[in-house]
Design a protein that fits this description.
Number of helices: 12
Helix content: 25-40%
Strand order of the largest sheet: 6-5-7-8-4-9-10-11-12
Number of strands: 21
CATH topology of the largest domain: Rossmann fold
CATH class of the largest domain: Alpha Beta
Number of domains: 3
CATH architecture of the largest domain: 3-Layer(aba) Sandwich
Bound molecules: thymidine-5'-diphosphate, magnesium ion
């Protein structure tokens, strides 16, 4: 039995019994989304709530459920909140199913039972992956299902400690005529699962596929409907994966966890700086170690530059991987103007080693020094770390969290940090024994310190 559905314009709210390519009220294209009529009726007739005095609101202490992987607990703001819905988005093949099967393994070995629903793979396929991950937990239930009604039914009867739905795009409600993966369906699926989670105080992980462009047919429109949105990112050719928080109703959004994809699943990386520097060449021109901030933590990364005379006269190449292209152009123009190099006959390649992205202005000074080190063919002093923002007059400007950056450099055995002079006063109150801080206020001064 199918309930009546209507198509509602997401722009102006116009209702139509049929789908329209263009809303006949506001004239917008592709805005008509199918919704259940019953749901609309509820929304319209819902009795208005009554206000409660602020002082009368009871503080409830919420016991969080630890998920096993410490880094994931951190990202969630200290564990899973009962009844919360966590959306994990990422490109296909990045490791979302692997991560959640590992979480299922950890939780299922403890007190909670886990219901892992997959609309993508057969039970045998999931078991194959589970064997690789060493899953022998007793309380993990698998279900290969795409019908929302049957999933809700099973979860309602079983009342698992945690529910995993892999993925939101494959599940569909038989009450809508739209096909699985359409905006109507993913919204309906999320809505009903959200209600189930709140009613039973059952935490839910929802997996959502995202395309490279970030325009996720679906998950993007779900962000406001769930409690927590995590993004799982990485390059296919590299083994590390970064889990970031985009939204968290129960914690900070600055946390981040780094994992390595291995033969036996995802391994959390405890010391990311050491991980990203482990293949760093010694005494190579063009290589600079930069102290950047990822999430709320400092991270040391290597920026590499290669400047070589061009074969494309009049149109030399400019390539940067992992850095903001516009910022790099600005810095190159600055080096030409202020230091007096000419790049018109040079190809310039820049790369952040390990496939990381560094978008912080604090990496500016590192970029400038990497390029000049490559032109001069002189390496930077050994064991030096660099950070600082560079302004258009060639001045080096102070950045946030200087002490954390310096401490990270010291923890990894570096001896010197080249940093904005403006940051030095803040560092005086910190105990920074064992590392030398060289403050500079312009790129000219930085060059005399380094070369
Ligand atoms: P998967 O979790 O299926 O990705 P998603 O659910 O995001 O689409 O992971 C896919 C990749 O991970 C696949 O290419 C194989 C690799 N992998 C490992 O390298 N080691 C492992 O232990 C597992 C389970 C997967
Ligand atoms: Mg998957």
């Amino acid at each position: 039995m199918r309930k009546n559905t209507v198509f509602v314009c997401q722009n102006c709210g116009f209702h139509s019994p049929k789908w329209l390519g263009r809303c006949s009220q506001c004239g917008e294209w592709n805005t008509m989304v199918e919704e259940l009529e019953e749901q609309l009726a509820v929304e319209l007739s819902e009795t208005p709530g009554y206000p409660v005095l602020y002082q009368d609101i009871q503080e409830t202490y919420c016991q969080r459920i630890p998920v096993g992987i410490e880094q994931l607990n951190n990202v969630l703001g200290g564990g899973l909140v009962p009844g919360s819905v966590v959306l994990i988005g990422g490109e296909p093949g990045i490791g979302k199913s692997t991560l959640l099967l590992q979480v299922s393994k950890d939780l299922g070995s403890g007190d909670s039972s886990v219901l892992y629903v997959s609309g993508e793979e057969s039970l045998e396929q999931i078991k194959l992956r589970g064997d690789r991950l060493g899953l022998r937990a007793e309380k993990v239930y698998l279900m290969a299902e795409t019908s929302l009604e049957r999933i809700l039914n099973a979860a309602d009867r079983m009342k698992p400690g945690i529910l995993v739905v892999d993925s939101v795009q494959t599940v569909f409600s038989s009450q809508l005529t739209s096909s699985p993966g359409t905006i109507s369906q993913v919204r309906e699926v999320t809505n009903r699962i959200f209600r189930l989670a709140k009613q039973n105080q059952m935490p839910v992980f929802l997996i959502g596929h995202i395309t490279k462009e970030g325009s996720l047919a679906g998950p993007k429109s779900l962000e406001h409907m769930v409690d927590v949105v995590l993004l799982f990112e990485g390059e296919r050719d590299h083994h590390h994966r970064v889990l970031r928080v985009l939204k968290n109703r129960f914690g900070p959004v600055s946390e981040l966890a780094i994992f390595e994809m291995t033969q036996s699943g995802l391994q959390p990386i405890d010391n990311p700086s050491a991980f990203f520097l482990r293949e760093r060449p010694q005494n190579e021109p063009g290589s600079v170690v930069v102290a950047t901030i990822k999430g709320s933590r400092p991270l040391l990364v290597e920026i590499q530059a290669l400047v070589s005379s061009t074969l494309f006269t009049g149109n030399p190449r400019r390539m940067s991987i992992g850095l903001d292209h516009y910022r790099v152009s600005m810095l190159l123009a600055l080096v030409e103007k202020k230091i007096g190099y000419s790049f018109s006959g040079e190809d310039i390649y820049l790369n952040v080693a390990g496939g990381l992205e560094v978008e912080e202005p604090a990496a500016d000074l590192g970029v400038v020094l990497a390029v000049i080190s490559s032109i001069k063919n002189i390496p930077l002093p050994r064991e030096m770390v660099v950070f600082g923002e560079v302004g258009l007059s060639g001045e080096v400007r102070s950045v946030s969290q200087a002490a954390a950056r310096v401490k990270e450099a010291r923890a990894l055995g570096f001896e010197t940090v080249l940093l904005p002079a403006g940051n030095l006063p803040q560092l005086q109150s910190e105990n920074l024994k064992g590392i030398r801080c060289l403050g500079v206020d312009s790129i000219r001064k930085a060059l005399t310190q380094v070369f």
